[in-house]
Amino acid sequence: MSDAGETGGGDADDRGIKEGVERSSGDPRVLFAMNAVLSALLASTVVWGLDFLGAAAYSLRNVATLTLIVFAVTYAVVLR
């Protein structure tokens, strides 16, 4: 059984996030801020895990570097 709102073509799903961001009337600074915060949280968690395994030291430099990498990749893949 399918929901009444579902369509066979999936037009809403085919548009993707890029078109949704382009058509959005929201402030893009909010997206940048959310991306920065979530990138920092992910980077901190990954570096902590690597420190726990003994593969890398948990330092501000390592967290900041990974944060910038994750932020840049996310921006390039999703928003451009």
UniProtKB/TrEMBL annotation:
Sequence ranges of Basic and acidic residues compositional bias: 12-23
Q: Which residues cross the membrane?
A: 30-50, 56-78
Identification of the protein by name: DUF8107 domain-containing protein
What organism does the record attribute this protein to? Answer: Halorubrum hochstenium ATCC 700873
From which domain of life does this come? Archaea
Q: Which UniProt keywords apply?
A: Membrane, Transmembrane, Transmembrane helix
* Ranges annotated as biased composition (Gly residues): 1-10
Q: Where is this region: Disordered?
A: 1-23
Database matches in Pfam families: DUF8107
Q: Which residues form the DUF8107 domain?
A: 10-78
